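User: Hey, quick favor. My workstation is busy. Could you predict this chain's structure for me?
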Amino acid sequence: MKKERTSIGDNVSIGDGVTIRDNVEIGYAVKIGDGVEIKNFVKIGDGVKIGYGVEIGYAVKIGDGVKIENGVEIENGVEIENTGKAKETDRKS
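Assistant: No problem, here it is.
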């Protein structure tokens, strides 16, 4: 039987009541708010910030520097990347 493993990087902050399932990789300097649930086979990149009450489904990948707001539910198999700062589009009146 294959041993299931979870790894948590350095300088990670984990809030109260957080559930982390098997086969989860959490990067460096991640902040996880209270009451978060992280299901199996999830990969969380460096510098990610996860608000309170977030539910992260199976096989989710969250890229470096992503910020997830409070109460968000992420469906199974979703990949989230940090695309940088939003830019205001030019508009002509």
